[in-house]
Amino acid sequence: MRALLLGRVLRRERYNVLVSYENSVYLGLVKKKVWEQEKVLVNDRVWFELITDSEVSVERTGGRKNYFLRPPVANLDLLVYVHSFKNPQCDVRYLDLTLGLATLQSISVLVLFHKADLLRDEDIQPWTNLYTSLGYDVMVTSVYYDLSALKERLRGKTLLLSGPTGVGKSSLVKALWKDAPVRVGDISRVGRGKHTTSWVELLPLDGTYVVDAPGFSLLEMPAMNPWDIQRMFPEIETTAKGCFFSDCLHLKEPHCAVKEAVNKGLIAESRYNSYLYYLDKQQEEAKKR
């Protein structure tokens, strides 16, 4: 029996992957059982067996510290959410969803309030104050600003860029790494008609690995229970300990510490509204299952 080697998945497309090992890259053929049970993801560590000089057989995945299925990526060091308040004006509910999903996965997050050149400082400052007060790392950026501090912040990390379509993810990556062959937010079109081909891959960019995931602008919310939704908002989860009812959902229940905190301005109304939105969405999805 041949010894198994441990490699890193650089790219995933349909049922094949590209596996990096030492200074070589191989076409990885994933066993059906492995694909169905373990869902091989970009940036997975995988145990493989050499078949030829250019092909390997992926036998199993290694351990994961975190993962998402859409986009299919694992073992992130950092999740970068790009948000703009103008051109386009983005909904903060998507920002809160990303922060919440990162919280559930214990992934560090960097929030970029982007296209800041289109706004006055006083328009952005209240949002910066809110999210920094919640413990999140926030930077105010524009492709017209000096991005050296941001590039240094990202150096050495394996990261995923998320954010609504049109927010400027591709142009930001190009501004940071001039030669980056990114397709962030796009789908590569080939042939005729509506046939498209897309893949997710890991791009090495000057000491940083960026997940290029066209077609996956925003993270998708998986099936959750109400307590998972509450955990997505740490300030609500903490305050909920003071509610009279232990199963309080902070809707119309009496003696609700969360609603009292919102009324007093101790919890931001925008955050509470995001919580209500995703709680309602979760409950509607539960009815369909």
Helical content band: 25-40%
Order of helices and strands: EEEHEEEEEHEHEHEHEEHHHH
Structural class: alpha/beta
Mean pLDDT: 90
Instruction: Tell me the strand order in the biggest sheet.
Output: 1-2-3-5-4
Please work out how many helical segments DSSP would assign: 9
Instruction: Give the overall form.
Output: globular
Span from first to last CA? Answer: 45 Å
- How would you sum up the major sheet? 5 strands, mixed, barrel
CATH superfamily of the largest domain: P-loop containing nucleotide triphosphate hydrolases
Q: Count the strands?
A: 13
Whole-number count of domains: 3
Top-tier CATH class of the largest domain: Alpha Beta
Looking at the overall shape, the CATH architecture of the largest domain is: 3-Layer(aba) Sandwich
Q: What fold name stands as the CATH topology of the largest domain?
A: Rossmann fold
**Uncertain ranges:** 185-197
Radius of gyration: 21 Å
Question: What is the beta-strand fraction?
Answer: 25-35%
